[in-house]
Amino acid sequence: MSHKTQGFTVLNLKHRSDRNTCHQLFVKEYSSRKVHTKLPEQRTLLILNVPPYVHEQELKFAFERIGEVENVYLGTDANDLPPMDDETSDKYVGKYFNTKKSLEIFKCAWLVFKASRSLRAALKEEEVVLHQNERTILVTGMDKWMSEYTAQLTNEKELEVEVNKFMNVFEVDEMKEKEQEKRMETDEDGWTVVKKSGRNAGFQQKETVITKIEDKIAARKSKKELANFYTFQIRESKQRHIISMRKKFEADKRKVEQMKKERKFKPLGSLKH
Amino acid sequence: MLNPNRSDKPSNKRKKEVTQNAEKKLKSNNYKAATQEELNQLQESCVDLSETVLSLQIENILKSFKISAKYEHFIETWLAGLTEFFGSLPSESEKKQSSEIKWLNKKVINPMNNEQFNLPKFVFQFLTPKSIRLTGSKLLSTLQSDNISVDVAVEMPKKCFQKEDYLNTIYHQKKAIYLCYLASKLRKWDQQTNLEFTYDRLDALRPILRITATSDLKKTITCNVHVQAEEGSFKLSRFVPWNSNVRDALFDASDSESGDIVPTPHHNMSIMRDLTSLANDNFLVETVKPVVNVTKGISLFKLWLKARCLNEDFCGFNGHIVSMFAAYLIKTKKLNSSMSVFDVIRSIFLNLKFSKWHVKGIAIVETMIPIEKSNEIFDVVFYDSTGWYNVCGSLSLDIYLRTIEESSRALAFLDSKNVNNFRYLFLQDMNPLFQFDHLFHITETAKLDKILSEHGCKSDRDNYVGQWYPHILKLFTSILRRGLTGRIHSLTPLPTKGSSWQVTESPPNTVKTLSFGIKLNMDNCLDVLTKGPQANHVDAESFKLFWGSKSDLRRFQDGNITESCVWASPSDNLMKKRLITRDICLFLMNHHYNIKAPHINYVAGQFDLAYRVSRTFANSDSEYENSENLALAVIRSFDDLAKMLRSLDVELEVTSVLGSSPVFRYCEINPVLPNATLLEKENLKIFQSYRTNDGVIELASSGKWPDDVVAINHVKAAFCLKIAQQLNEKCQLKSRGNVDTVEVLKDGFLFRFKLLVKKELALMKEMPQRKMDSFLMEKDFILPKLNTALHTLYLKNPCYGPAVLIAKRWLYSQLIDPFLWPDICTELLMAYVFIENKSYDQPLQPQFAFIRFLELLRTTDWRSHLVILDFSEELKDTQISEMENNFKSDRNSYPPLSIITSYDTKKNSMWSKLAPTVEVLTRVTILSNHTIQLFEENMLSDVFRTKMFFKASYEGYDVLLALRKNHLRTTHIYDFFMNTKKHNLVDKTVPAAGFNPVDYFLRELRAAYSDLAIFFYNPCGGDTIAVLWKPNVLEVSDFDPNNMNGRRYRGHQKYEYNLPQIIEDFQIIGRGLVENVIQNK
Prior knowledge:
Shape of chain A: elongated
Radius of gyration of chain A: 33 Å
Order of helices and strands of chain A: EEEEHEEHEEEHHHHH
Distance between the termini of chain A: 66 Å
Number of strands of chain A: 9
Oligomer: heterodimer
Strand content of chain B: 5-15%
């Protein structure tokens, strides 16, 4: 029943030998105009509809039968490509500060074979399995939850070690950065760089910050000024009063109109008889 | 004042600011010179906006009352026909003995129920009616279009009556037979489709004929025919209140002549009403009808009464009283023709508020009867335009007092100038369910007849002419009012519904039941003691008699020795104390009338079961009886811990320690029992506890936090470790530091504190990829503040906590768990019921607070309503209206259920952002409607079936996942459906803290399949997860690389959802937990 749509072929994913139903993976050779360092052409298989409980390990197991697998990457959808360079982000991440969450949803995967002939073989397959010796390799349910629970329990000593290790690295990094900054204070053309800290610190150019500062200045000014002292001031304040009354009147009219529209009142309808 | 002719002078500076054309136009409009007229208008509207809006609303209501010309015309011609028909009936030629009227009871059955009477003989002769005239609300044009029923009075000529007909109800008998005669003739008239008898305001002495007119109009038009004696048939002075016109002989033949002659004021007033009817109608037409606004005001006031169920029934505040009162106000110059409807209704409320008719009656003209004397005889006194008839003769004191109370509330509304208050006044249906704190219903099985004959006195029987309802009301209220003095605000008899029956049938037997609503007095209702007089005082004897064996001599600390009754021990919990009033009522009913508890359906504490500790775990100690009490122990322990935390020696001082779990505001439904322990295994500390109580720690502010989120996380971890270490060493408390929390064991409770750093939140907000995390962290910051506010609310009214508990339990048992409907939403909506619902007083019984919560859910249009919770009145009016405007203009950026509190004014309803969805909200609305109906049914039935309210139906779901019982958490909460087998399975080992397989399972299911299905579960002991497919699961689609999740190929290039495998998935994901899967076809 192999058939193709938009280059994808259907591949059954059997999780047990004794069940008729199974999920269908939709696979195709990964190709893209942009070169991706981690997804070499002709060796990468794009897999859609990977079930929630299937992850890197399980996919590797399933396709290992066809040919040796080099790597598996998961993503929420076909556009969620794995990052090109993973070296930088991993710098600080230890056991306790890993913000990566495992994808317990339907997802897609990029599976990189060692050899391109494995890929061609894979595209001809109709079925891959997730069981071995009549037993499924999936770790789900109670077993999974229990191991998850114990894994998240904190070992205080380990945590302390990790924190200390990080702080050491971080402090060194920070020192370096500061030095760098000092050097950068005036650039080659003689312009002064305004930064968050330092002698010439600037403020964030955000709307909220700016309005706050402006309000402050206005408040400071109004304290100094004498209100309603000169005739023109009195005149102006009266005028302002009229304007505010007009505005309020307009707003009230609108309110009444809206209430009318909403027909908030259905006196007799709301009562039970 | 400004010179209106002064030219426009916008300052140059401002002109510059204006850039856009449209803006310019708007501004120049605002800046143009004001004319004197406009100024006046502006100033007026500033003051009177609320009034203008109110009058606009009033106008709208009145418009909807108005009977259209088509109907008016029809009624006119139809009535002319009826008048002609009656007028053409020929008189009978001779008088007949009452027992020999052949036609009676053949075609038309006499509506009078004369079983208990021993009627003397009298003669009857039908004579052509003296006159037929319009009366009642149609006469004054105060009729409302929802229920068009016209009152017509038919006058019997003087000659129909003999000299002594005023005695022993002969007058009423004759009227009834006359009515029957009219009915029998009307049967052949072609302008009617239905003839029924009914009692006028349930008064069994006053049957009326209800004719349904033949018409092809949409609404049915009915006409009530009242028969009255012609004016002057009897001397009015015969019916003064102290005269006797009913003799004992009427009830007991053997008793003739021997009985005392007792005054029969109520009976007398019944006849007096007929005799003065014409004069009063003329008077009303003269005084009230010409003043159109007053008649409108009367209509409005009647609507207000109706919404509060005050106008119904034998002893209600009926429309006649209202019209008379309006006429009285006109006569006393309180109302006049220049007043607007708003002024009229306000004046009516105002004058009613300060009225004291029960102390000193009022009269429209100089009365023939001394008012002081009348006040001794009647509860409420208000004499009519003739000075003979007490319009309020049958009005019960309780209803009168409640009307006054409600009037003063209404007045406060009108004066508060808040436009939105209007709906509370006229538009809200105030079912008795929502007005009272306790309700009780004396069922038929109590045999009220027997009680009447045993305990009622003859004078009352004669006075009420054997009518059971007012008589028994008098018996019961006198006792209850005495027994409950001080504890209650008001005791109100609830209206009973009258019925009508075909003229060819005999009157149905009335079901003799009685219901009362009680409003508790907040200050005294929890008193455990009813203190009587000093032992040597003269009243001591009567006190003893009244309370019987309950009364005991007690010596108090101040040295007084008094008689007193003890209802509970001072150390009892609130749940028990709230029901003291119930105990007193039941005791009194039993003690005085021998009505046992099973005959009384006392609705007050039934739902308290919902938050009780399961019997298996319940300690005999009253402190451990329910979740509310258990919370207290947790809070105490938490406060101790907070003190310790603040005194720790950490680099940055711990400045605040606040709770955030529901338990800290008495809203935790699962009982928190002190049974947590710590297990140390292979360098790991494993806490074991059913519940973790969450709190937050904030440290003193410092500028030294790094500018990097990851770095802050590490520093936080270091702080947590330090705090935990210090707690271990200094305070000898078992604790563990985690990445961002500290867990501590104290007094058998497990606490978990989250460390909050403001800088982290600020940094996180700038990271778009972590929007969700920063949203959740923001909640962590605000929740403790809300917690404090809600805790304060509980301290002000301790009924809040249990009410939330009941509501949560109810939602849970409808399989709506906190994922679908966040707990905090329940808590905030309940707070809204307590703080903002101004139609009622604050509820004092959790059960009724819960019912009002349901009512809120049921009646509110969530699409157009924004819940604004202003704790401690911090918000300004402008802020509120700004929020409302934003909400209206940008509705779609708010969640379906929108709640804003004074702590998160700019957050577009953060608490309900993720849930509930529209579907769940609709479902809950429907469920609350059903529950209210169920409650109403139960309230008026013989037994209250509490279980029904907390029973989930598993019907209608697509897939059911049955769970293995041994992996389910033991719930300590009361189980409504306890079976004995389960009882033995109770696992006494405490599970690892935070490890609940069902939670894990649901989390994974929802993460993976939320697009396809909704998962329902009852977290209070549910053993099945119900799955409902979303409507889109049957969709078939073409291949789309972005939309292939969970699909399979079904041929012809089409793809469908792989439902069989997805159901299989449920089993895979829940391996070990799912016992079996049931599919509903």
